Amino acid sequence: MMPPIETDQPEPLKPRIMIVEDDEISAALLNHTIERLGYIVCRIVRSGEEAFEKAETDLPDLILMDILLAGRVDGIEAAKRIQSNLEIPVVFATAYDDQEKLDRAKLSNPVGYILKPYNDRQIKVSIEMALYVAGVEKKRRRAESSLQELNNQLEKRIEERTTTLQGLNSLLEREIAERKIVEKALRESEENYRTVADFTYDWEWWLDSDGRYIYVSPSCERITGYRADEFLQQQGLLERITHPDDRAAVSEHHSNNLNNPLELDLEFRIITRDGQNRWISHYCIPVYSPDGVFHGRRGSNRDVTKRKASEKALSEAYSLMEQRVAERTDELFKANEMLKHEIEENKRAEQKLRQAQKMEAIGTLAGGIAHDFNNILGAIMGYTQLAMTEASPGTQLYIFLREVFNAGLRAKDLIKQILTFSRQSEQSKQPFLIGTVIKEAIKLLRASLPATIEIQQNISHQVGPVLGDPTQIHQVLMNLCANASQAMADKGGVLGISLEEVAVTPEQAGSMGLGAGEYVRLRVSDTGPGIAAEIIDRIFEPYFTTKGIGEGTGLGLSTVLGIVELHGGVVKLHSEPGTGSTFSIYLPRHFSDTKQVTTVQEPMESGAEKILLIDDEKSLAEMVARMLKRLGYQVTMRTSSLEALELFRFQPDRFDLVITDQTMPQMTGMDLAKKILGIRPDIPIILCTGFSSAVTSDTIKAVGIHGLLMKPIIMEELAKTIRTIMETRNPQNQLNGS
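RE: above sequence
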């Protein structure tokens, strides 16, 4: 065996939970359950006032709080204070269904409810879903905070950039204003102009009426690298040093605008003597004598290379800012879309959580009802069978008793539907041809349907086997057909039944909730009025029905859904008002040999073994004891598992077989079987149960139990189970009669 891989990563911290419960026993039980499920109970408090005070100091990850608390502050008021100040998720615990209290409880924004009495699964699911919802809410608040911070930063940067642009614009405006003042002063006097021009920073010049330079300021050399006398001697020098891309504009300006009476300006590039590119801002005005004679133009050339560079940098910065603003806007938009998507996901998760809690609560209720009803029905059917053995076949009394027993069998099937819906019945699976089951069911339907309903079938003979329980698939078809026939009861119509093989592609699998592969599709359709849109999402809910009182239990479609899902399949519904409904069942095709299951009616077998019978229900124990005695067995009965264990420990060789109930106080049947097998490992044991999540074929085999009987116990099943176990363990029993 390879050594375990070491890792430096710390184990994740276990969630810390505060319990608020004023009943000490309930608080202790809840504390024990939560710690056994792997969580940490950081504190147990008794009142709403103490809950708020300790929550501020302990800061637990979750608070389990009883709605009804003694004192001035109940659980609802305490939860409101905690949520408004601390934002710690709260799960309410209650044993009541008071709508007014539940409406008040909603105002405190709890993340879940658990109902008393508690069970491990309910507490585990409620805690995990509450922690998940609280974690998602925390992420949402963190995302909103980050989004707000990003918005604030972006607004601040835009404000700073706007201030910078305004400052640069003010500088440019001042520069233009100063330039106009200087130019006005230069025009006031030619003599002053010449004096100032020789020492000015700008490149000043004067053209005569023929367009020839008559004056160029010495500053031209600082800007161009060429001396003033070079411009005077080489009249075309300016055009020659102008950048090729701007040369045409400069030549046109000099040739066409000489006599233009307007002030003119132009910006162009020159190439200096040392090969540098410089930007020149050119400004000129016409000059006239006092009598209006045109004398030429004078003007100024200013080096604005730095200004151009600043403008370019400013333009690039502005473009970059716009790009970044656009990118940030896009990021914010995407973040907002992601936040919306996450909020929608949270809503869907909350809906699934509420539905899961609802279905779990209904399933727990259904299982409990089935358990109690099994015990009552077991006594009715058992004593009816015993009474039938006393009555002569064919007599009126025997006929009445047989009808009572047949009614009990129908009630037993109803319990099986309830347990199938609540996922508490064990499923026996085997490969079988579903087409055979469908054809047998159609034969029964023809006799039970009214003449106004026509059956149209299309059963493919090429459909391969599925893995499952033929009886349950038979029940699926009968429930769907019964539902369809009731939809067409008033006006009649056509009941369609089809069976075929289909292939689900990877592209289809996701939307259908299936894996890609081969499936068997069973379709049941009707031409009834269809299903209204407002109830179509509820038709698979248990006990939901649109039928009148006495016309249906509301379990038909929920049982169909439960059976199909237990077989690894899905149910798809298509219905439109006025056009009928179609239910499509998809079951995975099984690729192996099929088994033809046949039922042979056999007479009840008897025996003479000594049996120890244990059941805490005295009436049921006495009934089973009578059955066993009628079958020839010697029976010792006990109604206490502890008393039965003490008897077996004192006389372990006295008994040949032990039959025990599972659900008993002090010690369950499974635990009793373990202790008995510890005393005598070879003793055969049969376990009886109405339902139990802890009892399956695998679990009883692991313990060493040899047989399982489902309540209510039928005398034929009891006889067959005993003989099968005894003859399997000792084939000579059948020969020697022991």
